[in-house]
Design brief:
Layout: H1 3-22, E1 24-25, E2 28-29, E3 32-33, H2 34-41, H3 50-62, E4 66-73, E5 78-85, H4 87-93
Antiparallel strand pairs: 1-2, 3-5, 4-5
Helix pairs in contact: 1-3, 2-3
């Protein structure tokens, strides 16, 4: 992966975590679809695709910063991917755990 692509990926992962964190709160279960995340982030990330958002969600889930679930969307007869931030993901954003080299961090 080229340096520019790596920086973009790290920025997107942080953006996804920030959007997932904003989805938490009274009356909300915290789940956001990849489609919603794409709609939120695509204006700041030229050429962003839903598949790319899904890939970053899965990466964040592997690192335990997010949870991922797949659900069948009858309207489009397709599988939708949703994400929700974990306590560890919040800790990363709040910088109460060590920085992760795969996610943009303001401490560096």
């Amino acid at each position: 992966m080229a340096r520019g692509e790596t920086i973009r990926a790290k920025e997107l992962r942080r953006g996804i975590l920030m959007a997932l964190r904003a989805a938490r709160g009274p009356g909300y279960d915290g789940w956001l679809s990849a489609r919603s995340l794409w709609n939120t982030l695509r204006f700041d990330a030229d050429g962003l695709t839903r598949r790319e958002v899904e890939e970053h969600l899965r990466y964040l889930a592997e690192k335990e910063y997010a949870e991922v679930r797949e659900r069948r969307e009858a309207k489009w007869d397709a599988c939708e991917v949703d994400g929700r931030i974990t306590a560890r993901g919040i800790d990363l954003l709040e910088e109460t755990i060590p920085a992760d080299p795969g996610v943009e961090d303001n401490r560096a």
